[in-house]
């Protein structure tokens, strides 16, 4: 069984996937958002490719743990996924500071600012998914 990890934003959706044993997360791609139909179509293609119906979606809570406008946006998008892609199971995971951690990791790896911009959402999805996988023991 695999699981796809998503870092959902206004302009992009970072995608990561677990290995079959659900031990490690690898970056897959960054979907450049154009329309809801295209976004969902590509997501459905990735779910078919990796043979999963499970999505782990990063929940961008406020630093004090409350749900704000960003988290409401992500919840609404998750509801659309469930409505449009039959049989999809959603798990939400606290993603506070995932983008910060991904950025620090890329800087430590000496990745240029231009290249970081292209992969940051995918890397954030990796951090979100790996955090979930690690929590499972």
TrEMBL record:
Its main location: cytoplasm. InterPro entries: RNaseH-like_sf, YqgF, YqgF/RNaseH-like_dom, YqgF/RNaseH-like_dom_sf. The keyword Electron transport does not apply. One of its GO terms (molecular function) is nuclease activity. GO terms for biological process: rRNA 5'-end processing. Residues 1-102 form the YqgF/RNase H-like domain. GO terms for cellular component: cytosol. Keywords: Cytoplasm, Hydrolase, Nuclease, Ribosome biogenesis. It is found in: Cytoplasm. Its EC number is 3.1.-.-. Pfam families: RuvX. Belongs to the YqgF HJR family. Could be a nuclease involved in processing of the 5'-end of pre-16S rRNA. This is Putative pre-16S rRNA nuclease. It comes from Selenobaculum gibii.
